Amino acid sequence: MCGKDYSPLIGILCMDIAQELQRKYGDDIHSYISAAYVKYLESMGARVVPIWINQKRTYYEGIMKKVNGILLPGGAVFLDDSKCTKNLRNDCVQSSKFIYEIAEEMNKDGKYFPLWGTCLGYQLMLLHSIKGNSNDIRIECKKMECSLPINLENSYVLQNSKLLKDCNDELVTAMSQLPFGYHNHRYCITKQILGDFNIADQWTVLATNKDSEGLEFISVIEHKK
C-alpha cells in the first residue's frame, strides 16, 4: 500500500525560447524549461509541475489551485512587444502577469501562495507590481558572468525579512564575503527605479550588488505582503 506524499508541488513557468537556443535547436522550438531549475527544486524535496505559456487566465487559475507555489525562472526575452518577431515571442510576460495577479488575489483572500522569481522572473514580478501599462522597468548594466558576494542591507531590515530573518551569523558572513550569487545578465533594476515607478512601498530591498562600472542594482528583494 502506497503512503501519502507530502512533498510540496511547485510549478515552473516555461520561458520563451532565447535567440541563441533557437539557433541551436531550430525555429520550431518556442518554449523551454531549464533542467537546472527542475534539479534545484527536486534537490530540496519538491515535485515539479511544468506550466505552459500562452494560455488563458482560467488555465493558470486551475493550476494554482493544485500547486503549492510557482517559480518564475530566468530567460532572455524581450519585454517590449514591439521587439518581438514571429519566432521570438514573449508569451511568458502575459502568462506571468496572470500568475502574479492571481497570487495577489489568493493572498488577499487569506490563501497563502508564494511566488519566487529568479533573474528575469524577479524582474517580471516587479514589472507586474506597477499599476499601469509599463513595458519595461529595467536599465542596461554592464553584462556580467561572474559570482559575487552580496551587500546585505542593515540588520533591522534582515531581522524583519521573511526570507532572511532565520539566517545565522555564519551564513550572513558567508553571503557577504564569499562569491555567493552568480550574475549572468545585462539588465538591472535599481532602488531609484522602484521610486520612479511608485512601487518602493510594496517591496523591501534585502541586498544589492554593483556592476564593473559601479552601478548599484538590486540583487535580493521581497514583497512586503
From TrEMBL:
Pfam families per the UniProt record, alphabetical: Peptidase_C26
GO molecular function, one term: gamma-glutamyl-peptidase activity
Transmembrane annotation, as ranges: none
GO cellular component, one term: extracellular region
Catalytic center residues: 119 (nucleophile)
Protein keywords: Hydrolase, Secreted, Signal
Statement: the UniProt record of this protein carries the keyword Hydrolase: yes
Record-listed E.C. numbers: 3.4.19.9
Keyword Transferase attached: no
Compartments, record wording: Secreted, Extracellular space
Entry's family note: Belongs to the peptidase C26 family.
Protein name, per record: folate gamma-glutamyl hydrolase
